[in-house]
Predict the 3D structure of the following.
Amino acid sequence: MPRPRGFDADAALDAIKATFWTYGYEGTSIQRLEDATGLKKQSLYRLYGDKRGMYLAALKAYDEHENAAAIDTLTAEGSARDRLKRLFTSLIDDADPRGCLMCNAGTDQAALDDGSGAAVRAMLSRLRQAFEAALGALDDYRQDDRLRAGKAAALVASYIGLRVLIKAGEPADRLHALVADIMKSL
Amino acid sequence: MPRPRGFDADAALDAIKATFWTYGYEGTSIQRLEDATGLKKQSLYRLYGDKRGMYLAALKAYDEHENAAAIDTLTAEGSARDRLKRLFTSLIDDADPRGCLMCNAGTDQAALDDGSGAAVRAMLSRLRQAFEAALGALDDYRQDDRLRAGKAAALVASYIGLRVLIKAGEPADRLHALVADIMKSL
DNA sequence: TTAATTACGGACTATTCGGTAACAAATATG
DNA sequence: CATATTTGTTACCGAATAGTCCGTAATTAA
């Protein structure tokens, strides 16, 4: 019955995600989303209800794509140490000036909006569990659950801190020294 | 010659800082700053020129008060390990839901505004040097400059990550386990 | 073919945005 | 006292804000 939509909803969501990623929640106007997606605001409101819905959809897409890619790196082939090092190093090498949308949402919206806060915590939890799983392949951590949980949480903190430092424009050599320290502390 | 001002400019700046701290740059309207300070916008514009000037003044005040307090903790009495542990633990115990204004500015504005980016980098640099100085009291790090620099950068990343996790509402026991891992890795 | 349903685009709303102009009150210096 | 200067206050500006309404086009099921 319905008239088919004349645009690619997935591509639109990608554009929405990229816009919130760059400008943050408050820094993103509906006009900006219209420009980024090429859609009229009416189509955006029909798809997502309101601006908050657009943001939550962007967070979900980020979790399913960018966050999932990071987790994939942690569960890929090679030794656990190599996978961890590859994850952290790749963040520096292809430095994204927008930072990490999950981290941005954590500082930006998590404390002001329950929905965003819950979404951020869910993403953080997924990432932490991936770190825990990778640590499970290392002798020192396989046996001791508490040790592994603490290290996994610390790796999440380092991950967030690294991405914020990248966004803040810290020089790459300092960041590589930082990663070297993380690897040494495993 | 001039008529004396009828308000406390320092108190006004504190209120401005608190408002940006809670709501971020874009989330803070001039109206909100008027309400927080009790001043009319004309007085605000006379003091700071424009909204960006108000934000940069808030960052400076944060550096001079909150950031300086953290650095003081790192240079207080007691062993270096105790000082480091006290700093991280205190962040968890008196969890500030607004997070860290330096960290917030880093994800919020550093990539979009040169002035904010430079201010954030300067604050990060001060904090990193304080970590380096504290590490200088530990035998393992006193000798090796590269080792110390890497660890100091890693501690900054952990500091940022911890504050973001606190703001995101992570449970305190997990955060204490995180700090235990940091201390173990020294 | 008709009816139901959805997509679309433009116009419109009321409010808020950051920022400015104008002016009277207050004060210290000449 | 007079004058220069800064204060606080009100009013105002055009632009942008999030969100809605409504008429029209397109499509499929009956």
